[in-house]
Amino acid sequence: MTGLNSRPEPSGRRFATPLIALALLAALGGALVEARGRPDGDVPIPEEVTWAADIAPVIARECLDCHGEDPSGPFTLLTYEDAVERADRIVRATASRRMPPWLPESAHGTFAAERILTDRDVELFRAWVEDGTLLGEQALGALVTSEQDAWRPGEPDLVVSLPAYPLAAEGYDVYRNVVVRIPVQETRWVEYVELRPGNRTAVHHARMMVDQTESSRQLDLQDPDPGFDGMELTSNASNPDGHFIGWTPGKRRLPPLDGMAWRLEPGTDLVVQLHLRTSGEPQNVTAQVEFHFADEPPTRHPAILVVSSLQIDIPAGASEYAVSNSFTLPVDVDVLSVYPHAHYLGKDLRATALLPNGREIPLIHIPDWDFNWQDDYRFAEPISLPAGTTILKEFSFDNSAGNPHQPVDPPKRVVYGSNSDDEMADLILQVLPKNESDRTELIRAQAWQHEAEDMAYMAELEFGHGDAAFASGDLDVATYHFQESLQYRADHLGSLVGLAEIFVQRSDAQSALIIAQQGVLMSNRQDARALTVLAMAQALSGSIGEAGATAIEAISRARAAGDPELIEAVELRVAGLVR
Predict the structure, then answer these.
(1) C-alpha angle 225/226/232, rounded to 5°?
(2) Could you confirm whether domain 158-294 is CATH 2.60.120?
(3) Residue 108, CB half-sphere, CA atoms under 13 Å: how many?
(4) Which of 570, 549, 546 is nearest to 558 (CA)?
(5) 302-335: per-residue pLDDT in tens?
(6) Hey, which residues does 384 pair with through a beta bridge?
(7) Where are the alpha helices (DSSP H) in 151-305?
(8) What does the domain layout of the chain look like in residue ranges?
(9) Rounded CA gap, 36 and 114, in Å?
(10) pLDDT tens per residue across span 364-399
């Protein structure tokens, strides 16, 4: 960390004695920590609010992660002059709670390292400006982060620098996976990792992974620039076992949890995924990763759970598009941290634990999502959940022109994808099972669910291609995609109905009847379109009486659904079959 004495000597209306900064903050530290736990009314606002006595300690405690040395924010707040120049902006940003950025709506103390100003802090900024932005009596130099509120890991045991990636001046979001071998000669146990993304103005967020195979390196060799593109990895790179390691602007250090180091073997490649933003000027981005090793192997083994949703299709203009999914725990766990993830259209993100006894425990609620300030959140105290608990994820998205984060004008349809102009709805949890057998069972159950979700997603994707081809009259291409869809999910109703429709058009009564009957069976005779195509297949096979009865049933189901377009379509298709 850059020390006070390494900065230029203050001049003009700066403080004369830099080292007093540390003394003042140390003297105020205990009182500050105590004040944060009190109701705001217990600590009155001074009659005269000054930078030295009142404002500097708040900024040192809450603002320097983004506005300190090497800022990820647009400016520093290291000196009195820095703050005075932007005093009105500070008052507006803190009064509106836009700063410091903290997305979860939760009781104070729910999460570790909260970035939350008390009402008193906000009032101090306002009073300071109204009092004339007074300097105060103490002589301070450049601020440093309050030692009372910051955990420091000490000198790293190993620093791995990645090759510089040349980011072009123009273009859209870039996801670049930079690869380098981790130089360890024997098995090590990693207790703590600090990911330093390099150029903070270029890096939106970053993620660290490891690869014990050559797959990431092989992808790297296919491109002359360092690394390879894409957020959806085609290599074997993955999170370190049971850990999610990332960097976002303003991210605070948290001490490692006891007994949870992870194994690092010789020959392992480090893969750092950088989400990069162009700025109009070429930039070189060089990331570093600092490793802190433990002397002993872990005694506790966490796991990462991902509750994802792949079937996302948000119409242009939709302001309340809902996505939900769930996972039921097969074993007891302690939830250690939570990381919700969406892109620019994310609006309201919520996760809840539904216990077997009917009790609900809120895990996280972000009522006003902002992609630029995403983070992972460690609970101040782990949340214990019994087996049978359902983790329910409920996200909403705003694809209207009224969304202040809307990236395009006019809005367009947005589907699932890893690019920033696509959408995602992921809930990532770090959990601690009670023992290794429980951990194995948990990971297996999650893998089964993900496999089923992947198959459903691919089936829906193929169906979409088939439906488009069918609408354009290309029956051969439509047949291919419907059949591919059914390879992923034999019960995909839309593909069964579409394939039966094609056989009807081709006058293949036997095939149409077999497929249509399967569709009606899968829908438990509840789907009007499946009944319609069955009626048509029955008529084609010569069973006119049976076709008429099925047609009447189809019309009844359509009317029960209350969809005028569906009613009209069904009645038109079966008009000749109803006597």
Answers:
(1) 105
(2) yes
(3) 10
(4) 570
(5) 999 999 999 999 999 999 999 999 999 999 999 9
(6) 334
(7) 215-221
(8) 4-130, 158-294, 303-434, 491-577
(9) 11
(10) 999 999 998 889 999 999 999 999 999 999 999 999
